[in-house]
Amino acid sequence: MDKSFILNKTSPRSSARRGWLLTTHGQVETPVFCPVGSQATVKTLTPEDLKSVNVNMILSNTYHLYLRPGIPVVKEMGGLHKFMNWDGVILTDSGGYQIFSLANLRKLDEGGVSFRSHIDGSTRYITPEDAVSFQQDLGSDIAMVLDECPHSEASENEVLAAMERTHQWAKRCLAAHTLKSQHLFAIVQGGLSPVLRQQSAEYLASLDFPGYALGGLSLGEPKDITFETVRHTLRFLPGNKPRYLMGVGAPEDLLEGVSCGVDIFDCVLPTRVARNGAFFSRLGRLNIRNASFATQKGPVDPECNCYTCRNYSAAYLHHLFRCEEILAYRLATIHNVAFLSNLMQEVRTSIEKDCFEEFKGDFLARYQPTNESVRIEQKQKWLSARSGETPS
Amino acid sequence: MDKSFILNKTSPRSSARRGWLLTTHGQVETPVFCPVGSQATVKTLTPEDLKSVNVNMILSNTYHLYLRPGIPVVKEMGGLHKFMNWDGVILTDSGGYQIFSLANLRKLDEGGVSFRSHIDGSTRYITPEDAVSFQQDLGSDIAMVLDECPHSEASENEVLAAMERTHQWAKRCLAAHTLKSQHLFAIVQGGLSPVLRQQSAEYLASLDFPGYALGGLSLGEPKDITFETVRHTLRFLPGNKPRYLMGVGAPEDLLEGVSCGVDIFDCVLPTRVARNGAFFSRLGRLNIRNASFATQKGPVDPECNCYTCRNYSAAYLHHLFRCEEILAYRLATIHNVAFLSNLMQEVRTSIEKDCFEEFKGDFLARYQPTNESVRIEQKQKWLSARSGETPS
């Protein structure tokens, strides 16, 4: 796989791009949103479920698979695709984000990073070369370099140091990477500093990776700063390479990211909130546990044509959630993944038809995002709860 | 629905019967095993999942639906079939078994039974007429009379009193039942006493119900006594009516029940143990958590052709269970329900071909049942844990 990307079109009135990601397991239309299957399963769903909502690319986590079942087991079973029975595209992250979420559980040196497993407390040590080797053994279609993701309250010096280490490690990862059927993407760091972001993008662009990710964002900072940073950074990355904004998945953020020129997104959001009873709709998130749904005969989202909305009343879903029935979590997940899959299809079509900006405006005019301050508070709570606990 | 049953054939060398159960939602080949969907869902499965393993009849629990979402809600939503999107056959129990499992939480009088909800502790009162009315509102295909199920250590006098009350209540249920599209089945009680069992069967047979269940069995007594009681009781029930043995679902017990002349079975066993990682196989139950499965490339049960065994290695299932991934519970449930569905299909075919007894012998020669003393201990633990807690 020499070429990783075909750029079909850029919107004349924004930076939105329509393209194709080229991988060993097929081509993926971009912009694309990838559901997350941390432990070799997109929680509650089968591969057939994913295909039924037109998902053909997912993300999986090297960190989780390294701890359980262990990389050698997945390799022995014929690689990650075969292990989880998924013949679509897989992007694996490197584990960097998870390891650096383990606040007090990790320690850095020049060679790599040592940390304690969040499962059994055992001490582990990983080098950039290990991260590449693990992902080669998993056989993912797109692998990520090991990066250092500074925490959201890091000082400027800490952000600088993390960026420089990320650059050194990116170079080592590139040197260690030998699997021709796999693309290795770099990760731009630099916190919220325009100077450092430019420096990081330019340095990594000079190494000529087949794709570039933006890391260290969507960690609780205000959204306008997130997207200012994205827009700024993308100017220093080559236009003919795919761009991946890590950890973004709220509908309004996907539209904003697309208008900045992002091609790939991933986030646990749609699947995680589904298990909590939140259903996406064109009007915003709906909480199925609300009493108003107890006797609603129609589907939770009348504009949706997914399996869940075609076959089950809101009242039934309300009942399943109240009873904590396992089926509830799958039905909600199918809906939310379908919602984002349909949204991205509409995004792609609108870029093709030169009307993405109108589509985005129309969508946002109806969609009520989760309150910004509530959102930041939730995210902070989530980030602090997980530091040292189960990284997502 | 006047006629409830067509008896095709009785095995010449045992009492095994091959027949058809006739209902408003279609005919069901008997002997049949019904998976349990207590709360209007067979845990983890969709209706499509059930159909994919050739299940067309399930059991649901009036007690659970009465508490959540409440009978009026299900009625308002168009009945239980529509509510849960299941167009197959539904048998509902009356709630008697659950209420009488609530040990200290219930109180009897001539009119009915008062009890405390295991969910919110609220006091409720149900009469036999209520139990019929609830099931008519649910619109199940087969309804059960409200019975008193004595606990396994009840004295002979208590068993006698429970039987007599069950008889009075059966008469009242029959008088209250008006829904022509629904069959109302009686429940034979009488504990382990041959005299009382005969008396109960004869009395209820005289009331001419369209079908008869055997209640108060499989509550921890030794299995040979269970089936001695079944065999004895069935002699006093009309041969042209379907016979239903409540709460039996282990493979070896299904075969024994069939050889006694039982037509219908239900049990939470296959779905409950699935969620605990136990997979049925022709050799016995396999515990997928065992380390021996960690790298097994083949399916957990090489003789099975279900969705789970066709698509996933034992190693992957082992991994999902270790990680407590929700998908694990569905994949295991599909397998166990498929296993019993296939087993009953083979049972029916063997009766047709006059070789049921050979089939049973061959099956039991290979199948290693869960150790009898372990089984009784587990059952006792389960029964005492649930008295006053969540009845199944």
What does this entry look like structurally?
Two copies of one chain form a homodimer. Chain A has 392 residues and is α/β, with parallel strands linked by helices. The first copy, chain A, has helices spanning 47-52, 62-67, 71-76, 80-84, 96-101, 128-138, 156-176, 194-206, 223-234, 251-260, 269-275, 307-311, 314-322, 326-352, 356-366, 372-386, and strands at 5-10, 17-23, 26-30, 32-34, 57-61, 89-93, 106-108, 113-116, 123-126, 142-144, 183-188, 212-214, 243-245, 264-266, 278-281, 284-287. Chain A is built from 16 helices and 16 strands. In chain A, the strands form five sheets. A six-stranded parallel beta sheet of chain A has the order 4-14-13-12-11-10. A three-stranded antiparallel beta sheet of chain A has the order 1-2-3. Chain A has a three-stranded antiparallel beta sheet with strand order 7-8-9. In chain A, a hairpin with a 2-residue loop joins strand 15 and strand 16 (284-287). In chain A, helix 7 (156-176) packs parallel to helix 8. The mean pLDDT of chain A is 94.
